[in-house]
Write a structure and sequence with these properties.
Elements lengths: L9 E6 L6 H13 L3 E6 L35 H16 L3 E3 L15 H14 L1 H9 L5 E3 L7 H10 L25 H13 L10
Parallel strand pairs: 1-2, 3-4
Helix pairs in contact: 3-4, 5-6
Length: 212
């Protein structure tokens, strides 16, 4: 989407000790396919904090309906707060005026750090906490803008948008507990269920390889 708007792209991924490391391979494949300007993979071992099924030995729920009254065990404490802060630093050094993140507040797992109110609050914080934010305010500029193009889209909308932009969706990754690092999906976690549902509702052929 950023490239379609004519933006040069610096891509940032985090190697944070996640069990679904296949997403790092997916990021590499997509960055290469899209010809991004620069890709940074930042090591950050959140296993030392734990508290999530994605960074510790907590089992990833399978074939169960999510409880909307509870934040799921796949929530990683403060993940997007930390990720956005580091991304803001990279944006400042890179001279980027926009920070794009693919959070989604419609078909999502109830994570508090995916909500629009958090993103807006973070944007205000980064204006106060960075040199670029202070200098931009002094010069009457807007400062760093946080873009969330997927925030109000359903998974079906996202699939349609990807297809319209000619993205090879077979290179994308969703699974919380993949059986390998080559892009195979378990087919039973909540992320896989949402992915299947998105392709079905979009009327787009699902190129995903599911283990079950």
């Amino acid at each position: 989407m950023a490239r379609d708007e004519g933006r040069g792209v610096v891509a940032l991924s985090f190697d944070y000790g996640q069990r679904h490391r296949a997403e790092l391979r997916a990021g590499e494949r997509l960055a290469e396919r899209l010809g991004v300007t620069r890709r940074v993979v930042l090591p950050l071992d959140l296993r030392l904090i734990g508290g999530s099924a994605l960074t510790s030995d907590i089992e990833v729920p399978k074939d169960t309906a999510p409880d909307p009254s509870r934040i799921p065990v796949t929530y990683v404490p403060a993940r997007n707060l930390v990720f956005l802060s580091l991304a803001a630093g990279l944006a400042e050094v890179s001279g980027a005026g926009e920070l794009w993140i693919g959070v989604n507040a419609i078909d999502y797992s109830g994570y508090p750090d995916c909500r629009p109110e958090f993103i807006r609050s973070f944007e205000q914080t980064v204006h106060l906490a960075t040199r670029e934010g202070v200098e931009s305010a002094g010069a009457g500029r807007a400062g760093l803008v946080v873009r969330t193009p997927l925030a109000e889209m359903s998974k079906a909308d996202i699939v349609r948008a990807g297809a319209a932009l000619d993205v090879d969706l077979s290179l994308t990754h969703s699974c919380y507990d993949p059986p390998d690092e080559e892009g195979t999906h378990c087919g039973h976690c909540e992320a896989c269920a949402l992915r299947r549902k998105g392709f079905q509702e979009a009327g787009v052929a699902d190129p995903t390889v599911y283990a079950g």
